[in-house]
Amino acid sequence: MTVDAIDFGLATLDLKNRDDLLKAVLSFARDLEFEQVTAMVAEDRIGSETRFAWVANMPEEYREICENVTRAKCDPVMQHCKRHGTPIAWNQTTYVTVDQGEQWEEQARFGYCTGITFALHLPHGHHFWIGVDRDQELPNDRREVERMTGNLMLFAVSVQEAAMQVLLPTTRERVCARLTPRELDTIRWTMEGKTAWEVAQILSISEQTAVRHLNNATHKLGCVNKHHAVVKALRLGLLH
Known about the structure:
alpha+beta, Beta-Lactamase, Arc Repressor Mutant, subunit A, TF_LuxR_autoind-bd_dom
């Protein structure tokens, strides 16, 4: 499967509730050949505990296990995602190496034997975490695992904005910072698949200036990259 971040972003614009979100992430996971998926959003709050919400297709019995805070603090995958912005492809060895083999055996009973997990740490203390899991080993072909991982990262960037609005609607700003006409132009042409050089030619500006406008727009929108910025601008109705 080939994933296009902008296409996935467009597909998630109409997600209106938890069921829609779960269907979207589950469809993606199954296309990637994983049976289970978990998507979680979190908001750091000064002076109080982190607020979070999630959707998953896990069995209720396992859901109760996952909600154990003490267990999560010992989970090597969760701890990796808490500290890093890079994905982790994990298996039994990941747990055994840190003396958490029993935890792996506990979750393996529910089909959580291997998986790939990725966390996005966003501006304003917001975080998005997504994991795809299954009861089979990951492919031996390293390139295939890299393909799966890359697809997961692109999908995460595309779907996280919708996940934030659906799961923690009160945490997202309703009105974004104003973008200049040139910043909107660069976002609009990026949506059309144009490179910075092509945008510069279209707008009769230098490539460096085009990049600066795009970076400024991405920053004002509180996004992690240009694909994320396109998705958010569309959701906010800034692009027509």
